[in-house]
Amino acid sequence: MPRSDRSDVCARADRLIARLSTMQGTVALFSYGQFGAALAVRWIGLALVEGQHFTLHPASISMLGCDAHHPDQRTIELWNECCHYHRKPL
C-alpha cells in the first residue's frame, strides 16, 4: 500500500477511535477485513503496518475493549472468531 494510502487509513482509524472514545456502552461496527485489522492495531497503539499480522476471515467476529481494572488500557478481547457459523446438523 502506498504511504499516502497508509496515512489515510491510519487517520480514518484514529478518527473512529476518537469518536468511539466519547461513547458509552457497547457499540457494534461492521467492516471489511483490512480496515478491521487497521482499527485493531491502532486501538492498541501499534503502527498500522502491524495490521499485516491480524488476519480476519469473512463473517468473523472480533471484539475490542478495555481492561476492567485499567480503563485506559485498550485490549483485543476476541479476534477472528469463526465458529458461530459452523452449525452441526440436527
Report on this structure:
With 90 residues, the protein is an alpha+beta fold. It has two helices and two strands, in the order ααββ. The chain has helices spanning 3-20, 33-43; strands at residues 61-66, 74-81. It is globular and about 50 Å long. The mean pLDDT is 90.
Defining key terms:
90 residues; alpha+beta; 2 helices
> Overall pLDDT, averaged?
90
Number of helices: 2
- Major sheet, described briefly? 2 strands, antiparallel
Oligomer: single chain
> What is Rg?
14 Å
Layout of helices and strands, plus pairs?
Elements: H1 3-20, H2 33-43, E1 61-66, E2 74-81
Antiparallel strand pairs: 1-2
Helix pairs in contact: 1-2
Write a brief caption for the model:
With 90 residues, the chain is of the alpha+beta class. It has 2 helices and 2 strands. Helices cover 32% and strands 16% of the residues.
